[in-house]
Design a protein that fits this description.
- The protein is an alpha/beta fold.
- It has a single domain, classed as TIM Barrel (Alpha-Beta Barrel).
- Helices cover about 40% and strands about 15% of the residues.
- It contains twelve helices and twelve strands.
- The strands form two sheets. It has an eight-stranded parallel beta barrel with strand order 1-4-5-8-9-10-11-12, surrounded by eight helices.
- Helix 5 links the parallel strand 8 and strand 9.
- Helix 8 packs across helix 9.
- The longest helix has 17 residues.
- Bound molecules: ligand PBG.
């Protein structure tokens, strides 16, 4: 027997009649502080290039990026996630540009840190923007090498921390990389650098526009990342991946993509109750914007609704390419 009164004494619609009562009983709310803005960095200065498959998103050179960081900080967005568009001539088999202390990411980290010290900076740890083959790890005879890749990731992470990165975010899905990166950071004196693990990252079709944006799609060709990114069939495995990364001292974990994996966000949050982030990835963003441009739905409203769904599922924060638009909207 339900403990609640029945109709007609009970009328759930009483709590939906006006905006003020709806806001009084709202269970979750979205605020600018929940949002993290991923950005694409270009070489040069004064450079702005739209990403065709991500309407409203531009790749920017470091000088223009500083302006975006200022605006994000002003809107109350706590952090940016940086992704470099590495010129093809700098891509190599081993991705060594990843640990060049003057690479695009490091230059952006230093410039933004200096101009906008109040915003947090996150950098991806993975080799795909730097490898000629577009894989996140090193390859031999078509096999992605785990342990050799970890050594490279450690160099990359230390290089980013030295350039002023606040949060290093391994997105590569190699086994054992969190412990190794933590040890390398500590050994280099970066005890305070935060580790955000892309712990449950799925081999997803929704990364397509991102791979256009950074140019890794062309390098990757018809290859896939299924030997390291997770199978979309699995959720118990996501809990094990998160458990392993927490045992290796991840400070925060991420589930990615977001909307198709809300069940995973919920299970991770309920099981471990640690800071849990979600990534509304490029394909999720592109679908909503594309439908909006066709006039098939109200893109801003749909974006807000999906971001609210992340909060409802338990996410503590959301990486979204719409962060600036949404933060402006939330601030009226
Ligand atoms: C690379 C990386 C990817 C994304 C973030 N880091 C793509 C991939 O794994 O191929 C995707 C983000 C997005 O689609 O918005 N390690």
């Amino acid at each position: 027997m339900t403990p609640f009164a029945a109709f007609p004494r009970s009328r759930p619609r009483r709590l939906r009649r006006t905006a003020w009562i709806r806001s009084m009983v709202a269970e979750v709310a979205l605020a600018p502080r929940d949002l993290i803005l991923p950005v694409f960095i270009l070489e040069g200065s004064g450079q702005r290039e739209p990403v065709a498959s991500m309407p409203g998103v531009d790749r920017l050179s470091v000088d223009l990026l500083v302006g975006v960081a200022e605006e994000a900080a002003r809107l109350g967005i706590p952090a940016l996630a940086l992704f470099p568009v590495t010129p093809v001539e700098r891509k190599t088999e081993d991705g060594c540009e990843a640990w060049n202390e003057d690479n695009l990411v490091c230059r952006a980290l230093r410039a933004i840190k200096q101009a906008v010290p109040e915003i947090g900076l996150i950098a991806d740890v993975a080799l795909d923007p730097f490898t000629s083959h577009g894989q996140d790890g090193l390859i031999r005879d078509g096999v992605i090498l785990n342990d050799e890749t970890i050594a490279a990731l450690c160099r990359q992470a230390v290089c980013q921390a030295a350039a002023g990165c606040d949060i290093v975010a391994p997105s590569d899905m190699m086994d054992g990389r969190i412990a190794a990166i933590r040890a390398s950071l500590d050994e280099a004196g970066f005890h305070e650098t935060i580790l955000l693990s892309y712990a449950a990252k799925y081999a997803s079709a929704f990364y397509g526009p991102f791979r256009d944006a950074v140019g890794s799609g062309r390098s990757l060709g018809r290859a896939d990342k299924k030997t390291y990114q997770m199978d979309p069939s699995n959720s118990a495995e996501a809990l094990r991946e998160v458990a392993v990364d927490l045992s290796e001292a991840a400070d925060m974990v991420m589930v990615k993509p977001g909307l198709p994996y809300l069940d995973i966000i919920r299970r991770v949050k309920e099981t471990y109750d640690v800071p849990t982030f979600a990534y509304q990835v490029s394909g999720e963003y592109a679908m909503i914007r594309a439908a909006g441009l066709q006039g098939w739905l109200d893109a801003d409203a749909a974006m807000l609704e999906t971001l609210l769904a992340f909060k409802r599922a338990g996410a503590d924060g959301i990486l979204t390419y719409a962060a600036i638009d949404i933060a402006r909207r939330l601030r009226g």
